[in-house]
Amino acid sequence: MRRLLVAGNWKMHGSRDMAAALIGDIVSATDNLQAADVIVCPPFPFLGLAQKLLADSPVALGGQNISEHQQGAYTGEVSAPMLVEFGCRFVIVGHSERRTLYGENDASVARKFAAAQRSKLIPILCVGETLEERERGETEAVVLRQVQSAVDVAGVEAFADAVVAYEPVWAIGTGRTASPEQAQEVHALIRQKISEQDDTIAGDLRILYGGSVKASNAVSLFGMPDIDGGLIGGASLDGDEFLSICRARG
Ligand code: 13P
User: Fold this and answer.
1) Confidence band of 31 (pLDDT split at 50, 70, 90)
2) Which of 28, 192, 231, 248 is spaced 20 to 30 Å from 224 by Cα?
3) Which atom of ligand 1 lies closest to the CA of 211?
């Protein structure tokens, strides 16, 4: 069975004190968290603090975004090598908030995916349809196009060291979770798409669900055969709630 992976995307929330307290809660509970690989993705300014606090912990650190460039005159950007220096092993690329608010598209997300891997970071590639796309019956086409654009740039073998997160845009921060069956259907399509190109890589690929995951719905979501964990937003800001999600396995 693929190991459960739970990643907390803090987005642009919190403070230094809150980051220290939250990481403290997570670290003190990790000895009974053998069931899952756990990642926290704080805002960039808190990465140094998080790196220190997580030094002797199995909890991994991730960034929320990276530049597609390695270095240069790109004011305000953060590169993959910089995240590596702060102890990051993972980075989120193509989150829907980046796509809708900051003009990222399949091509730029695919370049970020490749940039992450050049620095040996594991990209968490976010895909997902809007409500309008779902209502027009375009979910499958949109999600598979988003996945394939990263395959086209990085090659299917890149997915041996990558994670995919299905995050339907209509479920993010809305309290409206996809049902386990709705999510499973899309996860199976993603795995099928990769499997047509490499069956072994598809079998090992971890596909996370994100969008209003809470302790109360995590067990039923993670119980589906193709849901291998979660990308957690709001609920990752509450230590007890996040830890309950990390312990959930259907
Ligand atoms: P919520 O869990 O707050 O819906 O956010 C999901 C998300 O966007 C994680 O990346």
Assistant:
1) low
2) 28
3) 4
Probe residue for ligand 1, chosen from 5, 11, 40 as the CB with the greatest number of ligand atoms within 8 Å: 11
DSSP 129-179: --HHHHHTT-HHHHHHHHHHHHHHHH-GGGGGG-EEEE--GGGTTSS-PPP
Q: In a 3-state reduction of DSSP, which class is residue 6? A: strand
0.90 cut: is pTM over it?
yes
130 Cα: distance to centroid of ligand 1 (angstroms): 14
Domain count, the chain: 1
Q: pLDDT tens digits for 33-66?
A: 777 899 999 999 999 999 999 998 999 999 999 9
Pick the catalytic residue: 104, 129, 167, 241?
Answer: 167
Least confident of 17-26, 31-40, 43-52, 129-138: 31-40
CA–centroid distance, 247 to ligand 1, in Å, is: 18
CATH of the domain at 192: 3.20.20.70
Residue 114 and residue 117: Cα distance in Å, rounded? 5
Mean pLDDT of 188-212: 98
Q: Is 234 in the pocket of ligand 1 (CB under 6 A)?
A: yes
